[in-house]
């Protein structure tokens, strides 16, 4: 029978996890005080620890490091309501074997516990020294949490990587995150848009050229692979590269050598290659447009970025981040968006993904006359792209807050006022549910009067 230590300053979370994991046959030890938890591990054998990352006095990362010092083989899972790549990198680099985001999906955490207990020997090595700061990537949806964990695990190595995703999903941000958290972070990160140049110009840009190699080549250039030596080169839109250039890229990956256009000598380069595309490369291989050997050389590790329409839960976080960034860059005193504007942003299908969202908010901030962006500050195509039943400002339909209040009250009534069941249906933890009940003037245990 597995013995699991749960450490969270919220006693409700400790009890909830205790109930859920006990039903799976585990013995669960709950602690709300990290100091008591440290004392307890000295006296009792453990198979797994689950730690909250935000706690008073001793936070989860500090507690994790203490646990690793005393019990280096104990697997640790970090849970947090503050999902970000920084948190994932810090947790996994400090030795956590997994990372889950709040509000908790109980089935997800049960599956995580089963998976971790099944491979206890796969505890991470201690972290390398270095900075753990990174900005730009925002979101804590399950898909993004998985991407953060993948980045944290593969960044320290040197594997070639392939990033797939629609235009505007943030492929270059992922590539930069991998570089910034690798041993190459002090060396150059060089990004190349392969679709922006003709075949001849792209070859010259990548590999350099010697004097007289072609008309206008009045001097010698090193090329971007040489510029990235010791660091990382990011080949964006690799699916647009011609077959002839694909063969030369394959040589670089196999032999780690480049030859300038018009030159005779091969030059050795030490470069990590990260490629990205919005095309279906597997289909390109099948149709003969993309080399199969290059495809398999690139996809040693593959990261698939979801389109924004598949991670709508992240829109409030993205909007807050992008509005503050736009306000800072334009020196405007804009601090956020109205609830109606946020609802409209969440209803749009975003064919241009995060890049389109950023442009919309940048425009809104630039034209804003108030501290909070309203529907009137958003372009008309967003309203045209919303569902036909979208309520207008002049309608007598309830506000978004009132709709939320009615839905929570309905679920409470259906569960007979049972807080645990209501929280599970709503997909939030009990602590979040209590805050919502207080905010909307509702009461549990069947007493749900207005």
Helix-strand layout with pairing:
Layout: E1 3-7, H1 11-23, E2 27-31, H2 34-43, E3 48-52, H3 60-70, E4 76-80, H4 85-93, E5 98-101, H5 106-117, H6 142-154, E6 161-164, H7 171-180, E7 189-193, H8 199-207, H9 224-227, E8 232-236, H10 243-255, E9 257-258, E10 267-268, E11 272-277, H11 281-286, H12 292-298, E12 301-304, H13 315-330, E13 336-337, H14 339-347, H15 353-367, E14 372-373, H16 380-385, H17 400-414, H18 419-426, H19 430-440
Parallel strand pairs: 1-2, 1-3, 3-4, 4-5, 6-11, 6-12, 7-8, 8-11, 13-14
Antiparallel strand pairs: 9-10
Helix pairs in contact: 4-6, 10-12, 13-15, 17-18, 18-19
Task: Name the beta content range.
Answer: 5-15%
Category by helix and strand content = alpha/beta
Give the CATH class of the largest domain.
Answer: Alpha Beta
CATH topology-level fold name of the largest domain: Rossmann fold
DSSP strand count: 14
CATH superfamily of the largest domain: P-loop containing nucleotide triphosphate hydrolases
Q: What is the residue-mean pLDDT, rounded to a whole number? A: 82
């Amino acid at each position: 029978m597995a013995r699991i230590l749960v450490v969270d300053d919220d006693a409700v979370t400790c009890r909830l996890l205790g109930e859920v994991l006990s039903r799976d046959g585990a013995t669960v030890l709950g602690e709300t005080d990290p100091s008591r938890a440290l004392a307890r591990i000295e006296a009792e054998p453990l198979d797994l620890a689950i730690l909250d990352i935000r706690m008073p006095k001793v936070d989860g990362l500090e507690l994790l490091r203490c646990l690793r010092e005393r019990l280096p083989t104990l697997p640790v899972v970090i849970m947090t309501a503050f999902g970000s790549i920084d948190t994932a990198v810090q947790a996994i680099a400090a030795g956590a074997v997994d990372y889950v985001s709040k509000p908790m999906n109980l089935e997800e955490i049960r599956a995580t516990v089963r998976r971790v207990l099944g491979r206890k020997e796969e505890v991470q090595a201690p972290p390398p020294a270095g900075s753990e700061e990174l900005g730009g990537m925002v979101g804590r949806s399950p898909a993004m949490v998985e991407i953060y964990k993948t980045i944290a695990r593969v960044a320290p190595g040197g594997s070639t990587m392939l990033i797939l995703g629609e235009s505007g999903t943030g492929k270059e941000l992922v590539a930069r995150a991998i570089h910034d958290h690798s041993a190459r972070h002090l060396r150059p990160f060089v990004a190349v848009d392969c679709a922006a140049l003709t075949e001849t110009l792209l070859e010259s840009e990548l590999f350099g050229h010697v004097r007289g190699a072609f008309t206008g080549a009045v001097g010698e250039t090193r090329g971007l692979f040489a510029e990235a030596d010791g660091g990382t080169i990011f080949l964006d839109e690799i699916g647009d590269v011609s077959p002839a250039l694909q063969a030369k890229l394959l040589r670089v990956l196999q032999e780690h050598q480049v030859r300038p256009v018009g030159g005779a000598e091969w030059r050795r380069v030490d470069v990590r290659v990260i490629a990205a595309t919005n095309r279906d490369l597997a289909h390109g291989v099948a149709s003969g447009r993309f080399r199969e050997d290059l495809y398999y050389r690139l996809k040693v590790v593959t990261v698939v970025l979801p389109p924004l329409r598949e991670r709508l839960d992240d829109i409030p976080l993205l909007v807050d981040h992008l509005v503050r960034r736009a306000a800072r860059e334009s020196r405007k005193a804009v601090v956020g968006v109205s609830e109606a504007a946020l609802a409209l942003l969440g209803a749009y299908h975003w064919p241009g993904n995060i890049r389109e969202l950023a442009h919309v908010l940048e425009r809104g901030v630039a034209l804003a006359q108030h501290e909070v962006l309203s529907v009137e500050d958003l372009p008309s195509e967003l309203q045209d792209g919303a569902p036909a039943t979208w309520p207008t400002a002049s309608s007598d339909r309830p506000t978004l807050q009132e709709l939320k209040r009615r839905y929570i009250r309905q679920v409470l009534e259906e569960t007979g006022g049972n807080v645990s069941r209501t929280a599970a249906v709503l997909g939030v933890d009990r602590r979040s549910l209590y805050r919502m009940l207080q905010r909307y003037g509702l009461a549990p245990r069947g007493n749900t009067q207005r």
